[in-house]
Design goal:
The chain is an alpha+beta fold. The chain contains five helices and seven strands, in the order H-H-E-E-H-E-E-H-E-H-E-E. A four-stranded antiparallel β-sheet has the order 3-4-2-5. Strand 3 and strand 4 form a beta hairpin. Helix 3 runs antiparallel to helix 4. It is elongated and about 85 Å long.
């Protein structure tokens, strides 16, 4: 009874550990000719249509209550300005609320509490990049004194990624044909294709340096999307 049970356990463990090995063996056994491994990349560019920016307020007061109240009042005006500009509720999200004490450090004395700093920030998604600069200027007028970003991105990249996939497949096929001709062979078939998707996002562009200008302008530029494929061909 014990021997039968141990045999069953060993067979079960072998069955669990064997699929990947069996798969690799299957690929090797089904290739009658020469195996060729190709890495191919397909790239497309698109103009970003989403800008994500962090807008916040920092307030200071001698009391914690005073700092928090001033911060809340300023943020209320900032959010009201966003809604007035047509930014939807779903595109505004609180990202940080904090309160920190401030100390003075006299020489040879203990630190002295001199007040509090309260900060409140929201993450804003602008779906119209062309108007986002004007909205940022309005936020500053309403009390926002911290602006970070923007992070520019593409709202629905699926179509562009499909185009990149087609380019990657065409590149892989062309490269395989080149190797086959060079070897005096031909491409019999594609054995397997696996994808490693990458979506390149440029770093945020600082806008604080431009806040003093008459109007802030955000240039979307272009963004690259790429798909990497690992392809296995059979050459004969």
């Amino acid at each position: 009874m014990t021997k039968t049970f141990l045999c069953a356990v060993m067979l079960g463990a072998a069955a669990l550990s064997s699929p990947s090995a069996a798969q690799q063996s299957s690929i090797t056994q089904t290739i009658a000719g020469t195996r060729l491994d190709i890495m191919a990349t397909g790239e497309v560019t698109r103009v970003p249509d989403i800008a994500v920016i962090s807008a916040g307020v920092v307030s200071r007061s001698t009391t914690a209550t005073g700092a928090l109240q001033d911060s809340a009042d300023r943020m209320s005006r900032v959010i009201a300005a966003l809604k007035s500009a047509g930014v939807a509720d779903r595109d505004v999200q609180t990202s940080n609320v904090s309160l920190n004490p401030e100390y003075r450090y006299p020489e040879n004395q203990s630190p002295q509490l001199v007040g509090y700093t309260a900060s409140n920030s929201v993450t804003v998604r602008f779906r119209d990049i062309q108007t986002s600069g004007k909205i940022l200027d309005a936020l500053v007028r309403q009390g926002a004194n911290q602006i970070n970003g923007p992070t520019l991105t593409i709202d629905k990249p699926e179509g562009a990624l499909d185009e990149a996939r087609q380019k990657a497949i065409a590149t892989g096929r062309a490269r395989a044909e080149l190797y086959a001709r060079s070897l005096g062979m031909r491409v019999a078939r594609i054995v397997s294709v696996s994808e490693n998707e990458s979506y390149a996002v440029p770093p945020p562009v600082p806008v604080m340096a431009r806040m003093e200008a008459a109007s802030t302008k955000i240039e979307p530029g272009e963004q690259k999307l790429s798909v990497n494929l690992a392809m296995i061909f059979e050459l004969q």
